[in-house]
Amino acid sequence: MSTERWTSATVYPDMWTDPDDDPREALANPVGEKETLWNYLKHYRITLEMKCEGLSAEQLARRSVPPSTLSLLGLVRHLAHVEQSWFQRILQDQPDLPKLFGKSPENPDADFDDVVADPAMVEDAWATWRREVQAADAWLAALPEDELGRTVLRGDDVIPVRDVLVHMIEEYARHVGHADLLRECVDGRVGQ
Which Gene3D superfamilies match (predicted)? Predict the structure, then answer.
């Protein structure tokens, strides 16, 4: 093994993705504030996918940190809901869109609580998440850099678009941290 190419992946191949195979490496060297924020968001989205990679429906639905109802599948559903809420309901001013996964004031945690180990539910969750990510990315692609300071309303709050992007990064970072622990409890896999 060449010490020039030493990485954690060469020593711990079951834990780390080699940089040559890491899909997040393509996000290096962004230009401008919008691309930088967007790249961080993309990085965490890819990390979520990597954390769930190779698991069965039962493993994805497992609530592995009792008494919490968190599961990897619940996180995918929750983040699809978050993508829709911020990018479509708030930023694109579409407040009347139906909430995903049966979320309601009566059932605010449906994205987590209603998870079952069903391959069809897993497929639907990923398809919904990918659709919402694609819609968010299309909106971001069309957003001029100089509109990051433009404000939107959320209830009585006036929020700059920039703050929404930073919040989305924070939301993913937090939940990818949860995914680290959930995945380790499911099958012992750790790493980035």
Answer: dinb family like domain
